[in-house]
Amino acid sequence: MSSLRIGGIASGLDTENIIKEMLKAQRSKIERKVQEKTILEWKRDDFRTVNTKLLALRTATFDLKLGDTFNAKKAASSNESILTATAKSTATPGTYDVRVKQVAQKATLTSQQSLGSKENVSSVAAQFGIEENTQIDFTLAGKNGEIPFSFTAGATSLADIVRIINDEDMGIRAYYDANVDRVFLMSTEFGENAAIKVKMDGMRDSGGNLLVNGEGKALSFLGDYLKLNIDMKSLNETAPASGRKITSNSALIIHDPAAITLSQMYEGGTAPASVSFTLKGEKDSKDFTFDTAISLQEMINQINNERLTTGLTASYDSSSGKVIFSSGGQVTISGDTDNFLRDKLNMTIGSQQGTLSSNTAVRVYDAANIKLNSLYTCEDLQFTLEGGLGSHKFSFNASSISATTVQDMIDSINLWRNTTGITASYDGASGKISLWDSCPLAALEAGSTATNATLDFNEALYSSSDGTPSGTLSALANGQDLTASFIYTGSGSLTSATYKSDGSIDFVAAGAADGDTIVLNGGGLDNLFDAEGNQYLPVSMTYDGTAGTWKYTSRSNDERMIAIRYDNEGFLADELNINMYEMKGSKAIIDFNDAQNLEFDTNEITLMDSINLNLQAANPSQTVRITVTNDIDGAIEKIEAFVEAYNTAIVYMNTELTERRYNARDKYGGSFPPLTAEQRKDMSEDEIKAWEEKAKSGMLRGDSILFTAYSSTRCAATDPVQGLASTNTYKSLASIGISTPTFVRGSIEGGKLEIDEDKLRAALEADPDKVMELFTLDKVITNEEGKEILDWNGNPLRNRGIAIRLYEAVNENITTITEKAGLPSAKIDNSLLTKEIGRIDDRIKSYEERMQEMSERYWKQFAAMEKMVNYYNSMSNWLSQQVAQMAGQNQQQ
């Protein structure tokens, strides 16, 4: 209904003001209820403020419940540029010596120079000037996973690559800094377990061919374009002295146990006819004997056939290559007379609850017994290896994979050794494959002439029965004549070639002319090898007629390398567990007192479960002294914080309890009731503020709930503590220098605590344990017979320290006040005051509805009156017209 009303048109009455006066009594009822509601809201707010003070006090009191507050220790480092230190409360005061030999580092790969990026960085092709259809392949792996990248240069940007690495959360963070035009890769963790692994890095043209630089070396995106410090050439510690070597990180995982026979786990010809052992699960034990000709899957099946007897089941985890024995109770293995379980299934003999499994993957000793399809199932397997001599792509299609063994693959790699310089091998004991740039180095001794030259290999030489490392190696004998094994081409001739035990060959020639050559070419000598089976490439010497000397061209260490340029199914990385390159983090290494070379995967170290070190820098030559002392200042700070929170709460509660109302004569506030909306219209902001300060006064004066909270808090804090140790002279706060000032009548400061810091410090220094007991005692009260004394609820009575009983008292008061006034943050408030406010709201709503009904009725009544007045006015006008008309007619007559 419209609020616009116009009255009095006919009657001339001020209808609106008349009705307003008629509703004044009803409106007054509403205003009084609104004032009543406002007072309750003010009271509720004051209670909630009390709770805020008590909550702060409870928080400060909690610190004093903790023994660590009084037994706190602090640690100081004599050189904080090397390490900083903190100490727990359990630390023993004293001095400790530390040498930081090495700080823990994250694994990092960083662009070694500016990338030379172009202005357009919308794609890798645009940024680096690469053909858009160039295929880029690389795989990065961190602690938590790996990402194989394969994309065309025109379809992906460097920003995309960085984002994908970071989104994957694989333990590597990537950054591209456009200001310095460099890429940064960093592991998320420290230590040797943190690593950045590069499993593949290559680039191909649209036809799938490797892209090469001007020297014929394969191009790589990470190394050549992002210029990351990926080292594929340095000799690693597991390599032979003359070559780089990379080896599987773990044994090959054969996913199908049906593809493994028990005999294949032994070195050729050493397998026993059968193996025996005893298994016991949650039921009985059972002796088993198995023919070694059966498969691992058959053995597992036979064990499971007896599970009703043993209460044990066997299984094979194809993802880890481990055998698992499981039971609802203990799993026990014994009677392993052939050591099959221990040595071949790699199990720990004994008992274990629930499950007992292989510690490492089951291994097949001979690579010729491992089919590629038992390691991985794919239709087309391709990978490209690059060594110091060059690269080669190896391919196995679906039909050949099922028939090809790991040994076949190794033989294929070795067949191309003279092209790549890479040799592959398999170690049956560890179940790992190795790749190494196998061509050893040789040098021509100085002083060669046209007639004499000595080629020095610096190690004993061997020949092979079939010209490969897998053949039988035979050591060359001192003085052995090798003349027939070399071919001389040119106008001269080879007189003799003699092997010497120091690893050199003496050549004697006659009539040498410029360009003449001497090459190794069979003659009973099938290539040259070192003791580890690493092959020397065919020897070739050339005579330089101008210099008058023989020359031998040999590769340098800088040319030795192993790189994986392509791996379409991730076979080398995931199934052979080979990483092309791995950058590891480093451990922190310290000496601590007499303990030497302690290692940690972090720079934040805890020693003796009480001293925390934060390593900043390594300095093995300097000893840093850590001094641990009692932290008296820390205890005093927490006690001061407690006293401040206590005083704030006590003074506020005392103020609320004693504050008087201004001229209060009734429950609505007497001379200063809450202002109505109409009253506010005629007052300034300052006048409203001054009025409400007086109107809000004394809301909680004499309130019983508040008085209980005030008195219980004071008593809990200041009463002497009972039940302390007989030797403890600290019975109250006053005994340690915390007391109440002299009482001043009418002062709201009554009950506050004051600290004598000198006395408090002296108590903490003299006996912190006794001060701690004063605050933290919590002991059941017993009678002379040692029995617990119970309260009327049957709960043991307890002697409690100041912090314990004060914390409980404050908690109880907070609960009581919350029941009365609720919490401002509560979604549902069922407090007493809120309910009472709700009831008043309902009454106000009822009054407002009644006033609306009265207003509607009055308006209708006045409207009816106006209608009648208008009617009578019309009648009066008509009669006047009739009279006037009649008068006019009479005059005419």
UniProtKB/TrEMBL annotation:
<dbReference type="Pfam" id="PF07195">
    <property type="entry name" value="FliD_C"/>
</dbReference>
<keyword id="KW-0964">Secreted</keyword>
<dbReference type="InterPro" id="IPR010810">
    <property type="entry name" value="Flagellin_hook_IN_motif"/>
</dbReference>
<comment type="function">
    <text>Required for morphogenesis and for the elongation of the flagellar filament by facilitating polymerization of the flagellin monomers at the tip of growing filament. Forms a capping structure, which prevents flagellin subunits (transported through the central channel of the flagellum) from leaking out without polymerization at the distal end.</text>
</comment>
<keyword id="KW-0969">Cilium</keyword>
<comment type="subunit">
    <text>Homopentamer.</text>
</comment>
<dbReference type="InterPro" id="IPR003481">
    <property type="entry name" value="FliD_N"/>
</dbReference>
<feature type="domain" description="Flagellar hook-associated protein 2 C-terminal">
    <location>
        <begin position="586"/>
        <end position="874"/>
    </location>
</feature>
<dbReference type="GO" id="GO:0071973">
    <property type="term" value="P:bacterial-type flagellum-dependent cell motility"/>
</dbReference>
<keyword id="KW-0282">Flagellum</keyword>
<comment type="similarity">
    <text>Belongs to the FliD family.</text>
</comment>
<dbReference type="InterPro" id="IPR010809">
    <property type="entry name" value="FliD_C"/>
</dbReference>
<keyword id="KW-0175">Coiled coil</keyword>
<keyword id="KW-0975">Bacterial flagellum</keyword>
<keyword id="KW-0966">Cell projection</keyword>
<dbReference type="Pfam" id="PF02465">
    <property type="entry name" value="FliD_N"/>
</dbReference>
<dbReference type="GO" id="GO:0005576">
    <property type="term" value="C:extracellular region"/>
</dbReference>
<dbReference type="GO" id="GO:0007155">
    <property type="term" value="P:cell adhesion"/>
</dbReference>
<protein>
    <recommendedName>
        <fullName>Flagellar hook-associated protein 2</fullName>
    </recommendedName>
</protein>
<dbReference type="InterPro" id="IPR040026">
    <property type="entry name" value="FliD"/>
</dbReference>
<feature type="domain" description="Flagellar hook-associated protein 2 N-terminal">
    <location>
        <begin position="11"/>
        <end position="106"/>
    </location>
</feature>
<dbReference type="GO" id="GO:0009421">
    <property type="term" value="C:bacterial-type flagellum filament cap"/>
</dbReference>
<dbReference type="Pfam" id="PF07196">
    <property type="entry name" value="Flagellin_IN"/>
</dbReference>
<dbReference type="GO" id="GO:0009424">
    <property type="term" value="C:bacterial-type flagellum hook"/>
</dbReference>
